[in-house]
Amino acid sequence: MSGDLIIRNIAELVTCSGFEAKSGEAMSDLKIINNGALRIEDGVITFVGSEAEWELISPDNQSDITNTIDGSGFSVLPGFVDSHTHFVFGGYRPDEFAWRLRGDSYMDIMKRGGGINSTVSSTREASKEELLESANNRLNSMLSFGVTTVEGKSGYGLDFDTEIKQLKVMKELNKSHPVDIVSTFLGAHAIPPEYLGKSDQYIGFVLDSVLPYVSENELAEFCDIFCEDHVFSVEQSRRLLNRAQTLGLGVKFHADEIVRIGGTELAAELGAVSADHLLQASDEGIRMLARNGVIATLLPGTAFGLREPYARGRFMIDQGCAVALATDLNPGSCYTESIPLIIALATLYMNLSPEEAISAMTINGAAALSRQNEVGSLDVGKLGDVVILDAPSYRYIPYHMGVNQVKTVIKRGKVVYSKNG
Ligand code: NIG
Ligand code: FE
């Protein structure tokens, strides 16, 4: 039967059990079962427990299960949830990487027309088929790193047709590719050349002409904005995100990434699902996120790639925040699909423990997409989205730095990736 399998004798079954975001100290408890078993039927988890418990409850029908995987010697985790990416885009920007090494800043490059607007012109030029193909390849790469649910943003169109083209690409890929895609509308990612010096008018255009169409046609679940000095102000962000909430979209947005302008506090005020980046978040802003249950989504690959100071992950967890980790995969500030790189950076430079980093990449990533009831942990009733590591413990992920140790990926109970073909 499809989506039907059992993994037996699992050396370390990392369940991350729970149906809500883990905040503060709870992030340290991965609810591990040694010598475990995991049963999936019709794509949904129906048993999680020890091998001994499995034998006790199901002595007769074990041999009926066609797909039995031996988990001896391996660590088994929930599929990773990459809750912040920009994986649909045309063109690349390796020149900017080299300019930054020479001393140019990300914002300098953006101000002189490069950066996001450079990808905007390549994405406008790309056909839908070209975008489908390159995004499909990136999804394959993400899947090989154990990602089974990914968020993807528009934001490289900044005009009606191209924003919608990006969102439709994600909708189609969600049907054809095993990785589940959650779409976010990021029409306010930058001020396009046609609106230079007229950012209020551009927000008006996004608000009146694109957002209603996105919402009516169910092209996105979330709305995002680049709330940043020299991009969109806190006031403009409030205006757009308020409207998005009125239309039934969740909000999650780029806040206090490069300059502290109060995006963190705005996220708390609005009851955003997540506030993302937060490199410059204030102490009080962080405490507000914790109080209001807003997930702090941290993207250490971006701080690494831009050589900016890392977000204060340790402080956030100590203040009671629920922290999620994501790649921020995009062609400018952070071109990587590598989950082990993100986890290595989060542990080494944000002082998260390996356990906290795993919670951040699973159940908290799921919660950052309002999917905590469906994915992000190995619990009965959740989707059978599973990663088998070619290692005895999750602790090898940060320790074996930057190297992909994923052996097998299972999506809704089906093996969709195996390391050796
Ligand atoms: O999350 N900061 C804004 N957006 C992306 C970068 C996009 C780009 O440079 O193309 C980010 O870092
Ligand atoms: Fe981003």
Could you provide a short overview of the structure?
By secondary structure, this protein is an alpha/beta fold.
Topology:
Layout lengths: L4 E10 L17 E10 L2 E7 H7 L10 E3 L4 E4 L1 E3 L11 H9 L3 H6 L4 H10 L2 H17 L2 E7 L6 H17 L3 E9 L10 H18 L5 E6 L6 H13 L3 E6 L7 H8 L3 E4 L5 H10 L2 E4 L1 H7 L6 H6 L4 E3 L13 H12 L3 H8 L1 H5 L18 E4 L6 H4 L6 E6 L2 E5 L3
Parallel strand pairs: 1-4, 1-5, 6-7, 7-8, 8-9, 9-10, 10-11, 11-12, 12-13
Antiparallel strand pairs: 1-2, 2-3, 5-14, 14-15, 15-16
Description:
- With 421 residues, the chain is of the alpha/beta class.
- Helix content is 37%, strand content 22%.
- It has helices spanning 51-57, 94-102, 106-111, 116-125, 128-144, 160-176, 199-216, 234-246, 263-270, 283-292, 300-306, 313-318, 339-350, 354-361, 363-367, 396-399, and strands at residues 5-14, 32-41, 44-50, 68-70, 75-78, 80-82, 147-153, 180-188, 222-227, 250-255, 274-277, 295-298, 323-325, 386-389, 406-411, 414-418.
- Strands 1, 2, 3, 4, 5, 14, 15 and 16 form an eight-stranded mixed beta sheet that branches. An eight-stranded parallel beta sheet has the order 6-7-8-9-10-11-12-13.
- A hairpin with a 2-residue loop joins strand 2 and strand 3 (44-50).
- Helix 7 (199-216) runs parallel beside helix 8 and helix 9 (263-270) packs parallel to helix 10.
- It is globular, with a radius of gyration of 21 Å.
- The mean pLDDT is 97.
- Bound molecules: N-(iminomethyl)-L-glutamic acid and fe (iii) ion (FE).
